TrEMBL record:
Subunit organization: Component of the Arp2/3 complex composed of ARP2, ARP3, ARPC1/p41-ARC, ARPC2/p34-ARC, ARPC3/p21-ARC, ARPC4/p20-ARC and ARPC5/p16-ARC.
Cellular location(s): Cell projection; Cytoplasm, Cytoskeleton
Phylogenetic lineage: Eukaryota, Viridiplantae, Streptophyta, Embryophyta, Tracheophyta
Role this protein plays: Functions as component of the Arp2/3 complex which is involved in regulation of actin polymerization and together with an activating nucleation-promoting factor (NPF) mediates the formation of branched actin networks. Arp2/3 complex plays a critical role in the control of cell morphogenesis via the modulation of cell polarity development. Functions as a component of the Arp2/3 complex which is involved in regulation of actin polymerization and together with an activating nucleation-promoting factor (NPF) mediates the formation of branched actin networks. Arp2/3 complex plays a critical role in the control of cell morphogenesis via the modulation of cell polarity development.
Pfam families given in the database record: P16-Arc
Keywords linked to the UniProt accession: Cell projection, Cytoplasm, Cytoskeleton
Protein name: Actin-related protein 2/3 complex subunit 5
Gene3D superfamilies the UniProt entry points to: Actin-related protein 2/3 complex subunit 5
GO cellular component, one term: Arp2/3 protein complex
Family indicated by similarity: Belongs to the ARPC5 family.
SUPFAM superfamilies in alphabetical order: Arp2/3 complex 16 kDa subunit ARPC5
Lineage: superkingdom: Eukaryota
GO biological process, one term: regulation of actin filament polymerization
Major location (coarse): other
Length: 135
């Protein structure tokens, strides 16, 4: 039975990867139209993938990272980003900081500062305390 459960998870992972690939194409289209805030919203929708499969998490991170790095106007971002996205965005910011990549870290710190101003310290605590929805 354990082998069957692993197989179901693998099928589920493939379905999630397919959805992430579709989301990636949509985000690239939005970025080409200079709709960076919409691209980030799209990237955050349905995140994190409800799986323990690292391939899915990595694939989703790549999509979110692409949208994060395109954001230039933070005021426009937070004037149109719904508060429901704040906690998940914070999780991805910490994932970005953990990469050690200088441009990624710089961008994540810029967004982190504004997000903390907008959402408060509770956003940080919720993102760190949530062990179920890992990115």
């Amino acid at each position: 039975m354990a082998a069957t459960e692993g197989f179901v998870e693998a099928d589920n992972a493939e379905a999630i990867i397919t959805r992430i690939e579709h989301k990636s194409r949509k985000i690239e289209t939005l970025l080409k139209q200079y709709k960076t805030v919409e691209a980030l919203k799209t990237a955050l929708e349905g995140s994190p993938p409800n799986t323990k499969d690292e391939r899915c998490k990595s694939a989703n991170w790549i999509v979110v990272h692409r949208a994060l790095m395109a954001i230039k106007d933070l005021d426009a971002l937070f004037s149109s980003l719904d508060p429901e996205y704040y906690d998940i965005l914070m999780k991805y910011l910490y994932r970005g900081l953990s990469t050690g990549d200088r441009p990624t870290c710089d961008q994540c710190l810029r967004i982190h500062e504004k997000l903390t101003e907008k959402a408060g310290l509770g956003c940080i605590l919720r993102s760190l305390a949530d062990t179920v929805n890992t990115v």
